[in-house]
Write a structure and sequence with these properties.
Distance between the termini: 66 Å
Number of strands: 26
Radius of gyration: 29 Å
Structural class: alpha/beta
Number of helices: 42
Strand order of the largest sheet: 15-12-14-13-17-18-16
Largest sheet: 7 strands, antiparallel
Shape: globular
């Protein structure tokens, strides 16, 4: 127990105070290149608890920092004091006025807000690239913008009201009747100070003009001084000062934002130019033509992605000085596409292009074009040297000097040795992003970065009078340069704002206002080399929103952060390793969804499997290999265990009060597989081991098994499926790989491919795999022999969802017998891109298909849900509530164990989707 804990337990219950070595190490990093280890991580759930934390901070003189998603790139979300974590609660989202406004809490993910608003045809104004990971607390506190947001649709300009808590503990709701008058009455000193600052600003014409000029382009450096010009009352000034204040003035408990229309009609094109100056000259005519997004990319940026699958081949042939623009026209629903096409064609005809423009309205093709733009940041991150950080910065200059500013930035790269530097950005706003890799492991590297930074300041401010931070917030790395950009008069106002609202200076100190000229090169994050996956990680946090253990133990980013912490001098390695077993290894679902969101495609689940493998004893590995070699015997033992667990589970719970999640709710052991004929078969059916061991739900007949239903439904469409003899001897290998028994997994996978190769007539017939996890495991199997890898490349191994959707349903007589059904798309289905097939199957059988907005990995993960039921309980808490709120005629999925997990979580019986298809196609 830390000395601080008794004080904290007077405010929060023990479970919401995180102060073990592994906890503070996991929260020592955000997405920036800084690192500070907090004294404790706190998870308040009410405004009153936040007020008490403020009071404790003041009484003990301990700094405190609020953190939402921790995707901040400038060091705003770390502290060596109290870190107040908002990402595990505060997730409220409430559309208002038919979607014209939305009420949000700071822990709500921006993408989730937009998905909630989609039903109303609206979205929030800010559209940062990190919107599916970042949370509203960060979007508001950094005044985030994005590709189409510009300077008119950011949080400052779309803000309707705020509920906030001042460091003094005062709670203010700006939407309450008479809020402005009450604020001046309750906070007379603060109100008078704000009026004095307003008057000081307005009596200085040069400062007024400076402020107006600074906000004509994107600018997130310093406090929002335009509040002193745009508003008169103290409360209105303060609530707009809080936007972009990076958590240095108050706690933002709730915000109401005006929304903007979501424009679904899109026409997207990729344009190439001989030189970046020519590309920059195209920005004005494209803007005048109505383009919503204009993304400039220099040759180095294009080169970084030209080898990626799916990008246009033309990229590899461009000249050394070429540049590109990704442009998108957008319009409301119902707008004829020809309107956008005419505008795009007309403006393109006037541009000096090196190749014909490639425009499309097809969503898949649009995604391919956006992949060019979005792949640039990860491209640098993936190839950087081990032990280096990725620095992702953004500046803004007046749009008319965009081209020379880009050339000057390229020259700075050459001068300071950043050969991998790339430039891209939102050209319409004069906003340039750049990415470089940088080591902070020795003094020479630190001084390299310092020299570059100072020359960057001189270029952006001295030459172009631009913004050192257009979108990412001031943070720690630009705090020493706020005065250089704004001038002494403006900086003095900012210092006075901080002192007025946070007189003790304990709220996120060092961020935004910092008098230390070297603050930007202190508390830098070293990156010790560990494992390959760990060394690739840029700690951005994009993976966290998909992780099923995020509210229970650690996220993928945190698993990696802790691995690095173990290698740092002075680390309490013993304590970290002891906690790592449960927090990182036991409760990792190894679902691989993290790789889908990761900019550098890290699958932390694969790392977990390797670490589990390294901990397995030789004896355990031998037992696993024997089980894989004699799988039919193993399967019989599992069926026997199922029968015993159904009987013993309730007794175990009565005796121990809690235990592994085995009990009477388990399905009965499966019956024998149906007999089929090889002659005339259109495809081979491979029933997974889970289908062969776990029978239907209690009370259902054994012939309702998944393999039996698939054979019967396919026959109704005139499609014959054949189950080869001896299939009970085989397994895809996933039950072994998830536990780290990699040798056993290879034995099982190779034996299965051997058999399926012969049964499929050397790949002539497709092989249909009845559950999605097994399909994914076989198509992505590790440890295959060279011969079997070649066989897999020639075979058609198909998830049954895809096969039935494309080869059975077109010939199947279906009726929409269900009014509404609920789906749970399992992780493997999502990773294979087959979730749309499942939705289409359900739509053919039901009038309404509901997929919970928070749907994700259920955390059951094979047997994890049996061994660690708290993982599934935590992972499904929010989607289960969404499911229970919707009436439905049935609940369906494509994995037997996930169906058990979702049934437990929701109290609604989940079954295989094939049962829905059987019902809709039956008499």
């Amino acid at each position: 127990m830390t000395p601080l804990r008794p004080e904290l337990e007077r405010i929060l219950p023990p479970g919401r105070i995180l102060d073990r070595p592994i906890d503070v190490a996991a929260y020592a990093s955000d997405a920036s290149f800084y690192r500070l280890v907090p004294r404790a991580v706190l998870r308040p759930e009410s405004v009153d608890e936040v007020r008490e934390i403020f009071a404790l901070s003041h009484r003990l003189r301990i700094p405190m920092t609020f953190r939402a998603a921790g995707t901040s790139l400038s060091g705003q979300a770390i502290t060596d004091g109290l870190l107040v974590d908002l990402g595990h609660g505060w997730r409220g989202i409430e559309p208002l006025d038919g979607g014209k406004r939305v009420r949000v809490q700071p822990g709500a993910i921006g993408g989730k807000v937009n998905r909630t608003l989609a039903a109303f045809g609206s979205r929030i104004g800010p559209d940062p690239a990190s919107i599916d990971a970042c949370m509203m607390g960060g979007i508001l506190s950094n005044n985030s913008s994005g590709m189409c947001c510009g300077v008119a649709q950011n949080s400052y300009h779309t803000l309707d009201s705020l509920v906030f808590v001042l460091p003094s503990g005062a709670v203010v709701d700006t939407s309450a009747p008479g809020a402005a008058a009450r604020f001046e009455c309750d906070q007379p000193g603060l109100a008078a100070g704000l009026i004095a600052l307003r008057d000081d600003v307005r009596r200085q014409p040069a400062l007024v003009e400076r402020i107006r000029k600074k906000y004509r382009i994107k600018n997130t450096i310093g406090y929002s001084l335009n509040a002193f010009l745009d508003y008169d009352s103290p409360l209105e000034m303060l609530r707009h000062l809080l936007i972009g204040s990076e958590g240095t003035l108050a706690f933002l408990a709730e915000a109401v934002l005006h929304t903007v229309p979501d424009l679904p009609v899109k026409y997207t094109g990729l344009l190439f130019f001989r030189h970046i100056e020519i590309a920059a000259e195209a920005v004005v005519p494209l803007t005048r033509a109505g383009a919503a997004a204009i993304e400039l990319m220099d040759r180095a940026a294009l080169r970084s992605v030209q080898a990626m699958p799916g990008v246009p081949a033309l990229l590899a042939t461009l000249a050394p000085d070429a540049a590109g623009i990704l442009v998108e026209f957008q319009a409301p629903a119902g707008t004829p596409l020809d309107t956008l096409r005419a505008a795009a064609d007309a403006v393109s005809a006037r541009l000096e292009l090196v190749a014909p423009p490639e425009f499309t309205s097809d969503p898949a093709q649009q995604a391919r074009l956006w992949k060019v733009r979005k792949g640039m940041f990860p491209a640098v991150g993936a190839v950087r040297k081990r032990g280096t950080s990725v620095i992702f910065e953004d500046i803004a200059v007046p749009p008319d000097v965009l081209a020379p500013a880009a050339l000057d930035l390229q020259a700075l790269f050459r001068t300071h040795g950043y050969e991998d530097g790339i430039i891209f950005g939102h050209a319409k706003d004069g906003n340039l992003h750049f990415v470089i890799s940088q080591s902070f492991n020795d003094e020479a590297a630190i001084r390299q970065y310092e020299a570059f930074n100072r020359d960057l300041v001189e270029m952006v401010v001295g030459k172009y009078d631009g913004s050192l931070k257009a979108e990412h917030g001031t943070g720690r790395n630009m705090a020493p340069f706020v005065e250089a950009e704004w001038g002494g008069a403006a900086f003095d106002i900012m210092v006075r704002v901080k002192s007025l609202v946070d007189p003790q200076g304990l709220l996120n100190p060092g961020v935004l206002v910092n008098h230390d000229p070297e603050a930007h090169i202190k508390d830098l994050k070293s990156l010790p080399e560990v494992e390959a996956e760990v060394d690739k990680c840029i700690e951005c946090g994009f993976c966290e929103s998909l992780c099923p253990s995020r509210d229970l133990t650690l996220t993928p980013r945190q698993r990696i952060v802790v691995r690095r912490a173990m290698e740092r001098p002075g680390a309490d390695v013993a304590a970290l390793r002891e906690a790592y077993q449960y927090d990182a290894l036991d409760t990792c679902a190894t679902d691989g969804l993290c790789a889908l969101a990761c900019p550098v495609s890290i699958d932390t689940g694969r790392l977990t499997k390797r670490l589990r493998a390294s901990m397995a004893s030789p004896a355990a590995r031998r037992v696993a290999a024997t089980a894989a070699t004699h799988f039919a015997t193993t399967q019989r033992l599992v069926r026997t265990s199922l029968r015993a667990s159904r009987m013993a589970g309730p007794l175990r719970r009565l005796a121990a009060g809690r235990g592994p999640g085995f009990g009477a709710d388990l399905p009965a052991p499966a019956g024998p597989l149906p007999e089929t004929r090889a002659a005339g078969a259109a495809a081979i059916l491979f029933p997974s081991c889970v289908s062969r061991t776990m029978g239907p739900e209690p009370g259902e007949p054994l012939d309702a098994s998944v393999p039996a239903a698939m054979i019967a439904v396919a026959a109704r469409a005139g499609v014959a499926l054949h189950i080869p003899s001896g299939i009970e001897q085989h397994c895809c290998g996933m039950p072994f790989s998830s536990k780290g028994y990699l040798e056993a997994q290879a034995i099982a996978a190779n034996a299965t491919i051997d058999t399926l190769w012969g049964a499929s007539q050397q790949g002539a017939l497709p092989v249909v795999i009845d559950t999605s996890p097994c399909a994914y495991a076989l198509t992505h199997a590790d440890g295959l022999s060279d011969e079997n890898r070649a066989r897999v490349a020639r075979m058609r191994l198909l998830d049954a969802v895809e096969y039935f959707r494309t080869s059975v349903v077109p010939a199947l007589p279906l009726r929409r017998r269900a009014a509404s059904v609920v789906l749970h798309p399992v992780c493997s289905l999502v990773k294979m891109g087959n979730a749309p097939h499942l939705s289409a199957l359900a739509a053919a059988c039901s009038h309404r298909v509901f997929v919970p907005p928070s749907s994700g990995c259920c955390g059951f993960a094979g047997d994890r849900g049996f061994l660690f039921p708290e993982l599934t309980e935590s992972a499904t808490r929010i989607p289960a509530a969404e499911v229970r709120a919707v009436p439905a005629d049935g609940h369906y999925s494509s994995s037997r164990t996930c169906e058990i997990g979702m049934t437990r979580a929701t109290g609604r019986p989940y079954r295989s989707w094939i049962q829905l298809l059987a019902w809709a196609s039956g008499d």
